[in-house]
Amino acid sequence: MIGAAAASLFLVAGLASPATAAPPRGEETLQQLSAAQPGTLQECETLTAFAYPSTTITSVARIAAGAVTNGGRPIGEHCQVRGTMNERVSTFDGQIYAIGFEMRLPTDWAGRFLYQGNGGLDGAIVPALGLTRGGESGLQMGFAVLSSDAGHNGSQNPLFGREPQARLDYGYQAVGTLTPMAKALITAAYDRGPDRSYITGGSNGGRHTMVAAARYADQFDGFLAISPGFNLPQAAVAQLWGAQQWARVAATSTDLATAFTPTERTLVAEAILSRCDALDGLADGMVHNSETCQQAFSVKRDAPRCKGERDGTCLTKDQLTVIEEVFAGARTSNNKTIYSSFPFDPGLTQTGWAGWKFGSPYTRDAPAVGFIFTTPPAEPSILSDLRGYALGFDVDTEAAKIYATSGIYTESSMSFMTPPDPTRLDSLRDRGAKMIVIHGASDGVFSPDDTAAWFDELDQTYGDDAEQFARYFEVPGMGHVAGGPATDQHAGLAALVAWVEQGIAPDQLVASVNPANPEVPANWSPTRSRPLCVYPQVAEYVSGDPETASSFACEDPKPGLAYGTR
């Protein structure tokens, strides 16, 4: 595992400048924000006349209670408002661009606003239900919720990345543009603005959230980032590098998944469990003490090696080498870091992990790197052979282009996609805002090592006192955002609200399995629960029912074990 956050945050010279340490904060008391007060929807249909600069309302509808559900439970009556902002004809490609949005305004309002950051390349207005993938719905909890396409539509994916302003909207400016408008619309609907404002999202939505924590801390009181791709350009380049490594051992040239089949991934998962399952005091098919596991497990030593032909019961020497290299993190040929390492975790058996490692480099990462993250962007002709682009990508010469500017492209992708000064959050901290970050240990695309390294540096910047305003939770077995052999259902948003508005800092989150998750092992209880511990603490079994979170305690790493070296 990488030890310095900077190693995963910067590439250009393979070195990082140390953060300037803030003065020790001690145990000083931070500002406590007041609780939001409930309200009642005053206007709905009349919101067609809502006036705000560069804003057009395209439709308004009252949605009856129960017409929309979440988790089998009805969502109450609410007003759905759709519209656009900043519609324009591009001088670059002649296309019409706009920031499309949807707001859902509950009749029974909790006095809160939630910005829902969406995933992938955006380009679609996902229903503004405020889903966190942990099982919660902000709309169900009484939030007024906004969702957007981040400045382009689906038909413009991925070539919108060649349009200079569309790049910036996708990166960060859509959030900055939409948020004041959304608060004005809330005022028009309820006859007062929101008392408290939050932002949440998973994957790219988690990136939006972390970017907002650095750029728009004055606009939000709470930030919930799940599996955040906050170094997304680096991660996408690493995906192309990874595809090239898998191609070295793939059984067929057209299918990267033959490099490391489901049966072979199960062999490695079993080897990880053999070494690491009981490190937390209970052999339960989960690795809670991930940091110690990385020291205890060696894929070359512990996974079965083929003595003869590859037959699914073993791995070849070349396979083991590639697996070790991919988990160690993408690097240039002269050993400069491109992106973070990944922890070994038994959740690598899940289909989602394989999808990110073997399918995404061609379908998602190649067009994202080519058109959105590289400056200047590639020509549209690469769309005809994205596989060839991925496998032929020269990381030694091309990776640095995610830091480049050129002509009309005045910001590099590492500028417009990532949070500026991600470990300097004075504005967030000093105004009493709070931040929770949650990441799965078996995320196949964005590494929890990178997130842990970010928190290590954040904590160092604030004199080992960052937990006063930011907390990181890792989910054993969980894949990207959700899924995998994991307890991936949590009340992260409710915990954030309690912290922001009542000062109740979450010492742990109780998480449970999703009974509808097909990757939950059959021998687990369908009601299994576990504590998610504040990093770097780990869950250790104490006594009692092994299927219940109350049988575990969050403990500091044992003496002699590495601390803060993720």
What characteristics describe this protein?
single chain, 566 residues, alpha/beta, nine-stranded mixed beta sheet, two-stranded antiparallel sheet, 15 helices, globular, disordered C terminus
Shape: globular
* Total of DSSP H or I helical runs spanning 4+ residues: 15
Helix and strand content put the structural class at alpha/beta
Query: How far is it from the N-terminal to the C-terminal residue, by CA?
Result: 5 Å
Q: Whole-number average pLDDT? A: 93
Strand order, largest beta sheet: 2-5-6-9-8-10-11-12-13
Query: Which residue ranges are poorly predicted, with pLDDT under 50 across at least 5 consecutive positions?
Result: 1-26, 559-566
The radius of gyration over CA amounts to 23 Å
The level of helicity is 25-40%
Count the domains.
3
Query: What about the largest sheet?
Result: 9 strands, mixed
**Strand portion, in percent?**
15-25%
The total count of strands amounts to 17
SSE blueprint:
Blueprint: H1 5-9, E1 39-40, E2 55-63, E3 69-70, E4 73-74, E5 78-89, E6 96-106, E7 108-109, E8 112-117, E9 144-148, H2 164-190, E10 196-202, H3 204-215, E11 222-226, H4 232-247, H5 262-276, H6 290-296, H7 299-302, H8 317-328, H9 351-373, H10 386-392, H11 395-398, H12 413-416, H13 426-430, E12 434-440, H14 448-461, E13 470-475, H15 492-502, E14 508-512, E15 529-533, E16 538-541, E17 552-555
Parallel strand pairs: 8-9, 8-10, 10-11, 11-12, 12-13
Antiparallel strand pairs: 1-7, 2-5, 3-4, 5-6, 6-9, 14-15, 16-17
Helix pairs in contact: 2-3, 4-9, 9-10
